[in-house]
Amino acid sequence: MDLATTLAILFGCIFVGGFCGFGVYLYKQSKATIGLTLEKETVTRLLEEARTQQKEIILQAKDEALKFREEAENEIKERRAELNRFEHRLQQKEENLERKADRQENREKSLHLQEREIEKIKLQAEEARHRQLAELERVAGMSVEQARDLLISRIEEEARYYASSRVRRIEEEALEKAEEKARKIVSVAISRVASDYVSEATISTVPLPSDEMKGRIIGREGRNIRAFEQATGVDLIVDDTPEAVTLSCFDPVRREIARRALHRLVLDGRIHQARIEEVVQKAKLEVEQQLREDGEKAALDAGVQGLHPDILKLLGRLRYRTSYGQNQLSHSIEASNLAGVIAAELGANVYVAKAGALLHDIGKVMDQEIEGPHAIIGAELIRRLMKAPEIAHAVAAHHSEEDPTSVEAWIVMASDAMSGGRPGARREQVETYIRRLEALEEMGGSMEGVERCFAIQAGREIRIMVRPEIVDDVTAMRMARDLSKRIEENLQYPGQIKVTIIRETRAVEYAK
Question: Which of 62, 204, 260, 357 is least surrounded by Cβ atoms within 10 Å, i.e. has the fewest?
Fold first, then answer.
């Protein structure tokens, strides 16, 4: 291909490209012109719609403004009407207040006038009283002060007389009602806690299968009996009683241990020193266990919970103690039940009353180890182990070692007397009992200045009335101390005896 042809083709291509580009340009310009025209038409149409909506909005705003204006005018009219009504009520109230003020002013004026009249009447009455007093002084021959003192003294005498009469009548009524109430409570308690008593005696005899067993118990040269007495602390008496031996010891618990051990030895048949020590040790463990069980059972039967384990163990030891044939543990349980009933009737503390009555004789199991009355020993034990001062006081006061200061202490004292004093509860030879009471009264009546002497509370207390002109207070104290020493030296008695010296002066007059 030559150059001309190439150039021709090249120019042809350039021309065609330029024509095509010009065509594209014209197309774009025509399209832009058409789009602009469409946009103008759209803008025009939108402006017309906006003008239409604006007119509608303006019309709606005008309507709403008219409505608001009408509502505001109506509200203003209502407020004005309400204000008018309020002003009218205020005006009426002001008129009423003015009328009340006028009436009050008129009333004050009338009262002022009445006060003036009253003052005049008072002055006239005072003048009349002075004239009457002057006339009375002239007639009676004494001044006003003298007459007043005489009248006051007579009124005081009459008041004292009527007051003493009323007090005496109230005391008599109170004593009658108190005695009736006490009888009722005691009868209710006894009827609710009724129980039978079987007089008990300490068992100190062990039966044997044959008299040949006595020789085996004694052993060669008395070795077995010496070993038994040394291990138990009990005297073993082998006498002519057929098929039986006797145990003697002041401690009932040790006697029970010895009884069980000897009974087991007799049944086993093997009696020698080593066997004796083994059996006695087992018997001790059994009795200790039995004491704890008896104490727990007694607390359960009496309805007293929360006792110290050591207290329960000591309580069980009362099972082996008797007082005039009455078992002390049974006596304590019954006294506790009686105290609970009485406390419930009186509205007192039932637990304190029941616990105090259950433990009132617990000091008896320690009175051989510690010096002093069993009531004080038991009270100190309760204070130390249970930290219960109310119960300890009730225990200490049940034999008047301490003055009773609580209702529960009096209840424990009464329940102890009721349980021990009922018919059949205790036994003692009548002759011995009567001789002891006669000896007490004779010993008390032999002292100088004694007017009357009584042995009371089954011989537990001697009460002596002395002549006050012969025996003074200091002498009465010395007489009580001397008589207690004489009783300790000359009489044999269980427990303790309270000596009470009473010295009183009475003034008696008769209205004729």
Answer: 62
For residue range 77-87, list pLDDT tens digits in order.
998 999 988 88
Task: Give, in order, the Cα–Cα distances in Å from 8 to each of 12, 16, 20, 142.
Answer: 6, 12, 18, 180
Rg (CA), the chain: 59
Reference 226, options 216, 215, 218; nearest CA is: 218
Strands 244-248 and 235-237: antiparallel
Task: Report the C-alpha gap between 314 and 44 in whole angstroms.
Answer: 122
Q: What is the side-by-side strand order in the sheet with 461-466?
A: 450-456, 461-466, 498-502
Of the CA atoms within 13 Å of residue 331, those in its CB half-sphere come to: 29
**How far apart, in whole angstroms, are the C-alpha atoms of residue 370 and residue 325?**
24
Instruction: Please tell me what DSSP assigns to residue 271.
Output: -
Pairing between strand 461-466 and 498-502? parallel
Question: What is the amino acid identity at position 16?
Answer: V
pLDDT digits (tens, 9 = 90+) for 50-108: 888 888 888 888 888 888 888 888 889 998 999 988 888 988 988 888 888 888 888 88
Q: Say if residues 385 and 311 touch (Cβ distance below 8 Å).
A: yes
Q: For 428-477, what is the HEC assignment?
A: CCHHHHHHHHHHHHHHHHCCCCEEEEEEECCCCEEEEEECCCCCCHHHHH
